[in-house]
Design brief:
This protein is of the alpha/beta class. The chain is built from 25 helices and 17 strands. It binds one DNA strand through helix 2, helix 4, helix 7, helix 9 and strand 5.
Length: 623
DNA sequence: GCCGTTTTCGGCCCGACTGTTTTCAGTCG
């Protein structure tokens, strides 16, 4: 019986929650199941395996009833309770929840009253004007539902970070000159740098909210106005994306920003802390609660508002928490560690157990860059010059090896020819540095292009070049593009073959995922991390906004297992050198500091690390 | 369904917007 993954378990509990809600059960029952689904999804342990081995982890929200269900799922992969629910509530009803404006209560009513069981039924009923027979529904409701169903078909998938960034910039620019505007920025999952973004949440502070909201809904790119109020408006742009605009008074901007940055799980924790201390927290700030747990009114009423986030966290005796960490993955506990023995934040508070996160400015080079020698767009000198202008101390040129024919991979002769080009280029850099003609940003140790390769790990687990040639590169980056359909065992063996080579220094985009529709490879991750850590093989956080691989959680786990990481752009053109910023985003979401990433060090440090690999591999036998 | 320096019941995070409800429920984030 194959083991269910945490993601699969979470899906099951989310489905139970939806089914219960449609059934009309107590909403808190559904809430309880969703909370557990959340907890499982973010759990670092394999929940099903742990249950099967009779050492269930402590998960918040799991009581006797749900523990029993987890046991059943772990042992049999099935759940009688879910199957019974599915029998009572047609599964196709769940699809109706995707229609905007249709929630569980509406689905319940439509099913009870009109026998509507799927999207087709709903469309036919709306077209026939049958919905208005239900209390609370009119012809307008029918039109809205039809429009919603039509919209589902051309619903765009989630945005990549890069797409979201362009959209934010566009809207912000169009609103920038609005009278009264004090401040405007993106909050939500975009600010937390989640790999993919559903819709954009903008937060503004303005002296004239009405004017700002009016301007927002009248933007040329707006197709449809979804909501239009003085505090909150929402639009759908013509490319299908939704943008929400919240408008805060400047004096309470801090709590608004916390609230709309989320995550929801993080906010729930903050509100619980506030409540323990006798305050209710919302986007508007803190409201004093009476002994009955209700806000005090009249004379006794008391509120606290803050213009910045630091003060909001400070009021709860917490240091400010970076947006990237706000996922309730331990950041609250880490922040609480900054409190003194009296439970208060000291005068000059430290960061508690919060990590000092890496920043883009910490990077001193890029270990994964292509040129027009393989599938890149720009010439070597052009890529190199762009990198030099960024103030880097090096790039590693990593054109593909011959096995990746589709990318015009280099054979031995072209590798050697390319090396001559680099020799001449580096000689030129050295002359310029000696003569003081190098760009001002050039670091003290100068700028060099190191010779590397993106080495194909072949389908039969052999490497594309022989050891002698591999040994002649400064840095070898190995990756796997072909034979993706093999079993987890085979794929893992191929990655391990690269890790165990004394010449392979970096595993690039280890999971092989593409956010635009290519799933992760099913690797045996714990083994990969352990062997990478033992041999000192670096694991890449690929910053291409379509890859983001390793992602935040894998990077964190790898680091915890002792791996060192490298953040690379995988640039195929000069503009893509900026992709490292998204890689840094993933690292920050993974609680990673500059010291755990090799390309924050000097060129010498990188080369020394690489040179030591054969020893580390050899030590294997001795261990 | 879960949980308890508000523990075995009665809560469960909080508020804006919409539509049609003449006082509020449903949806959404």
């Amino acid at each position: 019986m194959p083991l269910l993954s945490n993601a699969e378990l979470a899906r099951i509990f989310y489905e139970i929650a939806d089914l219960l809600e449609i059934k009309g059960e107590l909403v808190y029952k559904a809430v309880a199941y969703r909370r557990v689904a959340d907890a499982i999804e973010r759990s670092p342990v394999e929940v099903a395996r742990a249950y099967r081995e009779h050492r269930p982890p402590r998960l918040v929200g799991v009581g006797a009833a749900i523990a029993e269900k987890l046991e059943e799922l772990a042992d049999t992969g099935r759940l009688a309770y879910l199957e019974r629910l599915r029998g009572e509530v047609p599964r196709t009803l769940l699809e109706l929840l995707a229609v905007p404006g249709v929630g569980p209560r509406t689905v319940h009513t439509l099913h009870e009253r009109l026998g509507i069981a799927d999207l087709d039924d709903l469309r036919r009923a709306a077209e026939a004007g049958a919905l208005r027979s239900v209390r609370g529904m009119t012809e307008r409701t029918e039109q809205a539902i039809l429009a919603g169903i039509a919209g589902l078909a051309r619903m765009p998938t989630r945005m990549r970070l890069g797409q979201a960034a362009r959209l934010v910039e566009k809207v912000a620019e169009a609103l920038a000159s609005t009278p009264g505007l004090v401040r405007l920025e993106a909050a939500g999952s975009f600010r937390r740098r989640v790999p993919t973004i559903g819709d954009i949440d903008l937060l503004a502070a303005s002296g004239d909210p009405r004017a700002l909201a009016d301007r927002f809904v009248a933007l040329a790119s707006v197709e449809k106005v979804l909501a239009h109020g003085p505090h909150k408006s929402a639009v759908q742009l013509n490319e299908g994306r939704q943008v929400d605009l919240m408008i805060a008074p400047p004096g309470s901007y801090g709590s608004f920003l916390v609230h709309f940055t989320g995550s929801k799980a993080h906010n729930v924790r903050l509100r619980a802390i506030a409540r323990e201390r006798g305050w209710s927290l919302s986007e508007h700030g803190f409201v004093r609660l009476g002994p009955d747990g209700e806000p005090l009114t009249g004379e006794a009423a008391e509120t606290r508002t803050f213009p910045d986030e630091e003060s909001v966290y400070g009021f709860l005796d917490l240091p400010w928490i970076e947006p990237e960490l706000r996922e309730d993955r331990g950041e609250i506990e880490a922040a609480m560690a900054a409190r003194g023995a009296d439970g208060r934040l000291p005068k000059d508070p430290g960061r508690g157990a919060l990590p000092t996160l890496i920043q883009v400015a910490d990077l001193r080079g890029d270990c994964h860059v292509h040129s027009d020698w393989s599938d890149g767009v720009h010439a070597i000198e052009v890529m190199a010059e762009a990198a030099r202008q960024r103030g880097y101390s090096w790039i590693v040129l990593t054109d593909h090896s011959v096995g990746l024919g589709i990318a015009r991979g280099l054979d031995v002769e072209r590798v050697l020819a390319q090396r001559e080009v680099l020799r001449a280029l580096n000689a030129r850099y050295q002359r310029e540095e000696t003569e003081g003609r190098a760009p001002e940003v050039t670091p003290r140790d100068g700028f060099r292009v190191l010779h590397g390769v993106e080495l194909e790990i072949r389908a039969d687990a052999t490497l594309d070049f022989d050891d002698a040639l591999l040994a002649s590169f400064d840095v070898v980056v190995a990756s796997l593009h072909q034979g993706r359909r093999q079993s987890a065992r085979q794929l893992t063996e191929r990655v391990l073959a690269a890790i165990h080579s004394p010449h392979v220094d970096i595993i690039a985009h280890p999971s092989g995922r593409m956010l635009t529709g290519r799933d992760e490879l099913p690797l045996e991750w714990e083994i990969v991390y352990a062997e990478a850590a033992r041999t000192g093989t670096l694991l890449e956080i690929n910053g291409s906004d379509n890859r983001l691989d390793l992602d935040d959680e894998r990077a964190r786990r790898a680091r915890d297992m002792g791996c060192r990481l490298v953040i690379s752009s995988d640039a195929h053109r000069i503009a893509e050198l900026d992709f490292v910023a998204y890689g840094v985003d993933m690292a920050r979401r993974g609680w990673i500091g500059a010291g755990e990433v090799i390309n924050t060090g000097s060129r010498d440090e990188l080369l020394a690390w690489v040179a030591a690999k054969p020893d580390r591999v050899l030590r294997r036998g001795a261990a």
